[in-house]
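Summary of Year 1 activities. Much of the first year was spent building the evaluation harness for sequence design. The harness presents a backbone, in tokenized form, and records the residue chosen at every position. We chose the following record to illustrate the format because it has been used consistently in internal testing since the harness was completed.
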């Protein structure tokens, strides 16, 4: 059986098994629509640390240890870690894993990092390079605002198109043996740039990348939207979700009720002021580990296509007037 499917996709001969997973979130996320599903809710945004960045590292570290514990393993069983975050030089990840003393692949896919880490961790397990791998990512509202937008003390007004960065971390342990949902196919995405320069409208910036990856996935696998119980993009919010539906309809694919976005699922649109929805690396990560995977274990979902999305901007590129390129990575999980 060929692992290479179509132009961009991969089929696994020995589909890696999700043997453990966890979700750790902040107070706002715990008060949202999915609060009852998360493994751990931290009310203190500083998580007992001296700054936002160290707090984010702690989210990642705790989520990783929980996932390993849930897999009934120890850190010594994990051969490679695939992890990343939104901060400069991946400092949340660096300080989270410096004491683990395990080989680390530091990844940056912006908010698509959960998809990227899952893809590479799965390839590593399927290829026989590791018995167990760990895929993890994080984001923090305060550290992201501080780096990409304005300091919290500034109190700037947010336009309706903006999204709220999810505070939290999601972690997944993949293995060659065990019980659990399996990663069966992946469709790595490519960079798409439609020339949008508004960093306050991430949904519009990322929608073309999400639509392109989903389209290529359908084309490579010769599948269609109804083949999945659920298709979920990462953090497009209400703006980006509607654009993806329109773009794919133009290509002959109609997304219906089985299509959602993690940024819409996580917060309450009426009770919480998050404007267009949720965003950040943790958005798709905790929605997957806290909600979707548990729905799979209960039998409510059998096959999902998760497409985490990422806006590939920086403070430098935005300040220099550049557009906001984006990327999206597709992962099929079956149980």
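For this record, the design step produced the sequence shown next.
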């Amino acid at each position: 059986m060929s692992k290479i499917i179509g132009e961009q996709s991969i089929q696994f001969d020995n589909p890696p098994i999700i043997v453990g997973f966890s979700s750790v979130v902040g107070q706002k996320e715990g008060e949202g629509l999915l609060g009852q599903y998360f493994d751990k809710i931290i009310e203190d945004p500083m998580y007992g640390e001296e700054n936002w960045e160290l707090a984010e590292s702690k989210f990642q570290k705790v989520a990783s240890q929980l996932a390993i514990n849930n897999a009934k393993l120890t850190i010594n069983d994990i051969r490679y870690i695939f992890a990343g975050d939104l901060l400069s030089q991946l400092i949340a990840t660096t300080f989270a894993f410096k004491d683990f003393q395990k080989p680390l692949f530091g990844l940056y896919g912006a908010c698509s990092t959960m998809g990227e880490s899952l893809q590479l961790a799965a390839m590593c397990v399927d290829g026989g390079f590791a018995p167990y791998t760990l895929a993890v990512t994080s984001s923090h509202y305060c550290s992201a605002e501080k780096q990409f937008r304005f300091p919290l003390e500034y109190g700037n007004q947010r336009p309706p198109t903006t999204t709220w960065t999810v505070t939290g971390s999601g972690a997944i342990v993949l293995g060659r043996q065990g019980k659990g949902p399996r990663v069966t196919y992946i469709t790595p995405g490519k960079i798409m740039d439609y020339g949008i320069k508004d960093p306050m409208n991430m949904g519009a910036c990322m929608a073309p990348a999400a639509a392109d990856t989903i389209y290529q996935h359908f084309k490579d696998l010769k599948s269609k939207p109804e083949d999945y119980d659920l298709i979920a993009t990462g953090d497009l919010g209400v703006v980006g979700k509607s654009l993806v539906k329109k773009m794919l309809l133009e290509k002959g694919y109609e997304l219906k009720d089985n299509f959602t976005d993690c940024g819409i699922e996580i917060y309450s649109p009426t009770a919480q002021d998050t404007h267009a929805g949720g965003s950040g690396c943790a958005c798709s990560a905790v929605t997957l580990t806290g909600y979707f995977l548990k729905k799979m274990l209960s039998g409510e979902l059998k096959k999902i296509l998760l497409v985490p999305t990422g806006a590939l901007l920086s403070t430098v590129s935005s300040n220099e007037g550049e557009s906001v390129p984006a990327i999206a990575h597709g992962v099929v999980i079956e149980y």
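The domain at 16-175 is CATH 3.40.47.40 (Peroxisomal Thiolase; Chain A, domain 1). Quantitative recovery figures across the full test set are reported in Table 2.
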